[in-house]
Amino acid sequence: MNIQFIGATGTVTGSKYFLSANNTQLLVDCGLFQGLKPLRLRNWDNLPFKASAIPNLLLTHAHIDHTGYIPLLIKNGFQGKIYCSHGTHELCKILLPDSGYLQEEDAHFANKHGFSKHHPALPLYTKEDAEASLKYFHPLDFEQEVKLNTDFKFTLLPAGHILGASMIKVTHKNTTLLFTGDLGRPHDIIMKPPATVKEIDYLIAESTYGDRTHARTDPKKELEEVINRTAHRGGVTVIPAFAVGRAQAVIYLISLLKKERKIPDVPIYLDSPMARDVTNLYCEFGAEHRLPTTECVLMCRDVKIINTVDESKNLDTNSIPKVIVSASGMATGGRVVHHLKAFISDEKNTILFTGFQAAGTRGEALVRGARQIKMYGEYIPVRAEIVLSDSLSAHADSQEILEWLGHFKKAPKEVFITHGEPLQAEALRLKIQEKFGWRCRVPKYLEKVNISDSSL
Ligand SMILES: [Zn+2]
Questions:
Q1: What's the domain count of the chain?
Q2: What is the pLDDT of residues 168-185, one digit of tens each?
Q3: Partner of 39 at 20 to 30 A CA spacing, among 7, 169, 220, 280?
């Protein structure tokens, strides 16, 4: 059997793993490249396989860097089945059409302002393409073994990263592979911990935080301090939050702080229709997370939900102290960009990032200390306080990954370290080798590795 790494190599985006054995093929994850332009351009490259020849696609979770290429895969001829958890399916119904809409918006904007070298600039796919892709989905329960053909079977295991997030155990004849997808944390505010695994032949492990341990600070305390500090300056706190997972954690913690009267009575706005819809899904899928249904409903009570674009723009017309939670989490797009444009040049205000900021994103430039930032084709000076709270991260850090690996009773034959920037992936490789002495490698983009059964 061969495994080819068609993304999430040297970067956290574009996850795609292509397995081929005899005449059978299987794709695990189908993500978009995001962030730096050379990476985004890869979305336009031809695939190194024939999409029409793939009978099955398995998804670890709904984030666009793991699913956002699906509509394009289908445009390229894929006609097979897409398997994922129920939670992932529900989230994809929200995230994929939105991704199509954003692709159309980007193309439209580039055409209007002449940004693109291509005339006209075209979207990778449209909202309609994305909606059409949903009919290929086959949602499954966790722990349910599915036999795909004579060679392949698989099982989804909870990964604790976001709603529906799964690790995927693929069995080919007698050989087992485990894809961690994005691995959650043992003590996440919302999600239950990832399932433990005791034995596997080949492990494909993420390394987003392969070189770091998250501050063990209490994220609630951190939010309390940032909101108080900013409100006392008479400023606005803008929180770019990933619409899936982090936005729910942030509003849950803010609702607790309000209830305990630990923050002033400033208005709190959730300005992301997607985060609103996802919050409702979290309430529906109670078994996967730690929040009791009552908490789930109550957390929305203290937060004003912003629905229309006009309401959203209205928030920027005054600088009365308030908290705005809005997507996207790395400020690459979405409504948070106009809030940043309105509030980032005033030193009274704070921009609080709540998770990993990929290279090439506005979020990453800001947490690195950029003094100006380009938005809507214009450079805007940065004077607001910029804070990164990684205690709210939905990814296991290096110590937590090592702890999770500690449950293995036997060394895997090989560990492939993916889904990390080069430094992070290399750091995790060294840590795993040092602690466990396992054979590890960091595959390169498009690298194909033979893991034939003869190596058993
Ligand atoms: Zn993810």
A1: 2
A2: 999 998 999 999 999 999
A3: 169
